[in-house]
Amino acid sequence: MSVPVSQMFTVASYVIRQKLAGRKRYPLVLMLEPLFRCNLACAGCGKIQYPAQILKKHLTLEQCLRAVDECGAPIVSIPGGEPLMYPEIGELVTALVARKKYVYLCTNAILLKEKMDLFSPSKFLSFSVHMDGLREEHDEAVCRDGVYDEAVDGIRAVLARGFRVTTNTTLFDGASPLRMREFFDEMMQLGVEGMMLSPGYSYSKAPDKEHFLRRSKTHQLFSDMLAHPKKHWKFNQSPLFLRFLMGKKDYECTPWGNPTYNMFGWQRPCYLLQDGYATSFKELIETTPWEQYGRKSGNEKCRDCMVHCGYEATAVDDTFGSLKAFGETVAATLTGKL
Amino acid sequence: MSLEGWTPEIGEYLTLAEVVEFAFDYRGNTTVIRTDGTELLGYLFNRNASAPRPYIQMFDEGGEGPITIPYAEIATIKFTGKDTAAGNSWKAWVERREKEKAEKAVALGSERSGRNPDPHRG
Questions:
Q1: What is the pTM of this model?
Q2: How do the residues of chain A divide into helix, strand and coil, expressed in percent and rounded to 5?
Q3: Which residues of B touch A57 (CB under 8 A)?
Q4: Best residue in A40, A50, A212, A279 to probe B by mutation, most B CBs within 10 Å?
């Protein structure tokens, strides 16, 4: 596993503090969406399908920082839309780094070379580049040829400047485990710090529902793909979450683990479902009917979901909730075995 | 199926609360007709049916907002804006891609036959 020690320590001490304080529901990663505008129009993405006046809007820097302070999560992920199109992205990242937040700036990397001067390398900042596989698979996933090569160019440029770079990969039905293993080799050869994986989710608004993975297929795909992992593969996520994807562990969703804030407010209940908005983080936590979400609830929308934004927080909570899980995590981190 | 262009009639078989849910799910602008006859065109992004005074929230056509309107002040909601989620499917993308590939192959074929790569065949 490739999460830096200082980040692991920050997350560990934060989770332990929450547990000691007896907080039942605490956030781990704030998903901060400053805008929905994007320079790609991927078929699997429900985030960009809004009328023009919504796509033109974005949060102010003050709104972003207020949300970060209100939430208090140690990690801030900035997806979107394409965050490099946000006019105040440099100022936002600088302010988050000053707050000692670990920032994952999720980008398709098309604008990375052009915008990298807005940032300074820091252990708190990682560019999390969207890569859905090798050239053919990635360009097909983003519905435009040439994007894979642009992303690789962008990655090389920021790595040369000393930035942290990770990749984030969403896997869809029909993904080839063999091709994915080649992809892992290629990304590690490129020099990225680590990779993040997640199965896709059938957004209620996404026009590509039939293409997303069902639960048993997810287990099969991840078992085939991650069986006998190569030593040089590094994953920037909890090994227990990867084991969950492989069907080796059974978890329940933690929808409040990755709360989402955007121009509409605090999204209920999670990053993927849109059942309404709260005006404050406190209101989100206190008034969302959490019992109506997750697999156990029987909610159809949650039935096949195994996405990181609901389950990685569960895996992290489990890590610090029992000695067995902690031992498992340490062993997997040291040996690379899943 | 898209709801684009739909003008629902609130009545015995269709409640306002149901129409609000459809509008909340709709990825395009809608026109809210108030009980006083005035109209508001915009994107309906939130609703709360369980509040003491149920309400919707919108950003208007110019992006101003949020504007809060109680259910009690709504006569109906028309689905007047383009449905931005319609017609953008993965299937459509793959079909477009395949068509482009086929067209390229045909164009390449005619170019080759125009060049007459085997002069002995006339």
A1: 0.91
A2: 45, 15, 40
A3: 59, 63
A4: A50
What residues of A are in contact with residue B88 (Cβ under 8 Å)?
A: 41, 43, 49, 207
Compute the CA torsion angle A52, A54, A55, A60 (nearest 10 deg): 140
Residues of A engaging B, defined by a Cβ cutoff of 8 Å = 41, 43-44, 46, 49-51, 53-54, 56-57, 140, 143, 204-208, 210-211, 264-265, 276-277
Give the ipTM. 0.89
Nearest by CB to residue B85, choosing from A53, A205, A211, is A205
Q: Residue A302: which residues within 8 A CB-CB, separation 6 or more?
A: A253, A273, A293, A294, A295, A310
CB atoms within 10 A of CB A264: 22
The DSSP output letter for A168 is E
**Can you spell out the DSSP letters for B52-119?**
SS-EEEEEETTS---EEEEGGGEEEEE--S--TTTT--HHHHHHHHHHHHHHHHHHHHHHHHHH-S-G
Task: Render pLDDT for A103-139 as a digit per residue (tens, 0 to 9).
Answer: 999 999 999 999 999 999 999 999 999 999 999 999 9
Euclidean distance between CA atoms A10 and A250, whole angstroms: 26
Tens-digit pLDDT profile for residues B53-93 = 999 999 999 999 999 999 999 999 999 999 998 876 666 66
